[in-house]
Amino acid sequence: MASSRKVIELFYDVVSPYSWLGFEVMCRYRNVWNIDLKLRPAFLGGIMQGSGNKPPGQVPNKFLYMTTDLHRLAQYFQVPISPPADPFEAMFEKGSLSAMRFVAAVQEREVGGDKQVEQVSRELWMRIWSQDKDITQPASLSEAAMKAGLSASEVEELLKLSTSKEIKDKLKRSTQEALDHRCGSGHQYQYIHFFHYLTLSLYSFIQAFGFPLAVCHVNGKAEVFFGSDRFELIAHCIGEKWMGPQPAAAKL
Amino acid sequence: MASSRKVIELFYDVVSPYSWLGFEVMCRYRNVWNIDLKLRPAFLGGIMQGSGNKPPGQVPNKFLYMTTDLHRLAQYFQVPISPPADPFEAMFEKGSLSAMRFVAAVQEREVGGDKQVEQVSRELWMRIWSQDKDITQPASLSEAAMKAGLSASEVEELLKLSTSKEIKDKLKRSTQEALDHRCGSGHQYQYIHFFHYLTLSLYSFIQAFGFPLAVCHVNGKAEVFFGSDRFELIAHCIGEKWMGPQPAAAKL
Predict the structure, then answer these.
(1) What positions does UniProt annotate as the active site of this protein (chains A, B) (predicted)?
(2) What is the spatial distance between Cα A13 and Cα B133, in angstroms, rounded to a whole number?
């Protein structure tokens, strides 16, 4: 039985609200689909730098649309996203490096599953993307971890571990692995020229190289999906059924 | 009964392959959902210019991903998309202005429905995005229209009409209407600053202002959806059920 389970790796960073949507949906489906979900905390700042992604021009209609889109998705997915009052400070001045190192440390120490990784990640998202609270200070990480059920002594050890070279390197490696997951087959390189022009002035659906990133291992091949809007295709890819963002409710 | 039908306007241009996906899905659902689908042929070139959308930087991973993404979507949606050999020439040197004026002319003359608009649009997509054929010359437009079931004399009249000021203005108006459909509520303006920075380095799902664009009229409010990946949300918005890209097959 175990050999038929499809492995899905989910790369994410708690600084990204769209990652939160992807994370909650995949955590719900891990008990519904015959999959082995591997949570892959990584560092989005490193992804953006490593992929050479550039800021898009300032297009007012686009930003207006994204606001509405995120709000609608959060409601539909039932994830309590509420932007921080000063998102620039929260995301770029403060950032998520210490938080993601802490999650990596939790993952390094956890045995027999990833419940702690899941719950600590969720508590961190709750802080930055729902309650407008800090996620950079040791006291903030500690509070999130305690809420997730870890003991004070565990937290103390994890805080120490999270600043070690071992954990810094681990997060770097995970981030690099996400960067190295390019798309499926080899013949696509011939289309680079084509898609350059496609993005220049055609359409509308431009996926920056970012998070969340789901890597589905199917028949020895890695299929890569970006964003929080390809679940139906992911289901199709792994031979499962998409039942909307709340599969438990769908089953009732 | 008629008053309970939700109106969905679908703005599209045959130069855009993602528009084709959206068009086919909405044409399938017009017989499944209690909707009044209004096809809105428009000119994407005018949208890109009018919205101030800028070309993104050249990010190789992004282009690789888009290639795979479009290929997977086309297969899953069962729309026979196959990129032209020289997409740059097809899309930018030749473009779709005469084709979309022709579709606007077909719409201007059609009475009692939009079957001709639907079929002519589909035949034009088949030419540019499946068979690598021209869509700029009168002979090309004529061939597409004849395949869609129009007579030679009808086509002749439409070709003449398509270069008239009346039709040029009609296409301009439709394009401007698409541009004027910004997003729902008013309070979102406060988030412009926020989303500017969000797109600067966060995430992953950047919607250029482009096509397809679906405008759902619900309870006196216009809800705007870009792209070919929000059908599930559209269904939710209008109180209908999403059954995948092939609802007829789903019903069997």
Answers:
(1) 16
(2) 45
CA dist A177 → A50, A161, A215, B58 (Å) = 11, 22, 11, 21
- Which residue, A134, A139, A137, A171, is CA-closest to A155? A139
Contact B57, B102 (CB under 8 A): no
Share of chain B above pLDDT 70, in %: 79
Q: Which residues of B touch A213 (CB under 8 A)?
A: 204
CB of B43 within 8 A of CB of A204? no
Query: Which among B162, B108, B167, B118 is positioned nearest to B140, based on CA atoms?
Result: B162
CA dihedral A76, A211, A182, A113 (to 10 degrees): -90
- Cβ–Cβ under 8 Å, residues A33 and A240: yes
Structure tokens at A192: 């680079």
Residue B51 confidence (pLDDT)? 64
> How near does any CA of chain B get to the CA of A154, in Å?
31
Report residue A64 as tokens: 């207006």
First to last CA, chain B: 26
Q: Do A51 and B73 touch (CB under 8 A)?
A: no
Clarify whether A16 is annotated catalytic.
yes
Q: Which helix (H) or strand (E) holds B87?
A: helix B87-88
DSSP A32-87: TSSEEEEEEE--HHHHHHHHT--PPP--HHHHHHHHHHHHHHHHHHT------SSH
The domain B2-251 is classified under which CATH number: 3.30.420.10, 3.30.2130.10, 3.40.30.10, 3.20.20.150?
Answer: 3.40.30.10
In whole angstroms, what is the distance from residue B101 CA to residue A48 CA?
41
CA distances from A144 to A21, A136, B87, B235 (A): 19, 11, 51, 36
Tokens read off for A201: 């002035």
pLDDT digits (tens, 9 = 90+) for B13-58: 999 888 999 999 999 999 999 999 999 999 988 876 766 654 443 4
Give the span between the Cα atoms of A126 and A84, in whole angstroms. 11
Q: Report the DSSP beta bridge partners of residue A141.
A: none
Which residues in chain B have Cβ-Cβ distances shorter than 8 Å to A188?
Answer: 64, 67-68
Closest chain B residue to A232, measured at CA = B244
pLDDT digits (tens, 9 = 90+) for A23-47: 999 999 999 999 999 999 999 888 7
- Distance (Å, whole) CA B124 – CA A250: 40
One-letter amino acid at A245 equals P
Residue A41 in tokens: 């905390």
Pairing of strands B6-12, B35-41: parallel
